[in-house]
Design brief:
The protein is 31% helix and 22% strand. By secondary structure, the chain is of the alpha/beta class. The protein has one domain: Leucine Aminopeptidase, subunit E, domain 1, CATH 3.40.220. The chain is globular, with a radius of gyration of 14 Å.
């Protein structure tokens, strides 16, 4: 069984040369148009348009840690995988981070993607530690059967 190749990079998730990106989303309980998107979601909305969020809304509530696939809108990727990485109290936990990472990798493999880029799930609105989140996500990627390259992107604004 081929194992995932993992790389940790600093930069902008939306600038990664990958097939699919992951959007750290919420449980989809509150309609997307009522939320003020932050972080990755706001960047996707600005650069990719509203279509991925309209598609996401049609899926209804997302169980904690689960993943949903949509188109990439105007972004140059083959798709976006949205993960419910924060609980109903808007906190990320070890469980939500691990499960969301695992679910995204399983869905990416199912869709035939060979390269995927993740943000640090739950480190924005969810309040999780960047270092702990990175370690949890790397451990899940190492344990996965995803047969491609996994990029974990620590956001850094361009100078």
């Amino acid at each position: 069984m081929e194992k995932a190749r993992i790389r940790v990079v600093e930069g902008d998730l939306l600038d990664q040369p990958v097939d699919v990106i992951v959007n750290a989303w919420n449980r989809n309980i509150i309609p997307w148009w009522l939320l003020l998107p932050q972080g990755v979601s706001a960047a996707i909305k600005r650069r990719g348009g509203l279509e991925p969020f309209r598609e996401l809304a049609r899926h209804g509530p997302i169980p904690l840690g689960h993943a949903v696939h949509t188109s990439a809108g105007r972004l140059p990727f083959r798709g976006i995988i949205h993960v419910a990485g924060i609980n109903l109290l808007w906190f990320a936990t070890e469980y939500s981070i691990r499960t969301a990472t695992r679910s995204a990798l399983e869905l990416a493999a199912e869709k035939g993607y060979r390269t995927i880029a993740f943000p640090l799930i739950g480190t924005g609105t969810g309040g999780a530690s960047r270092q702990k989140t990175q370690a949890l996500m790397c451990a899940e990627a190492e344990a996965s059967s995803f047969p491609g390259e996994v990029s974990i992107v620590s956001y850094r604004r361009a100078p």
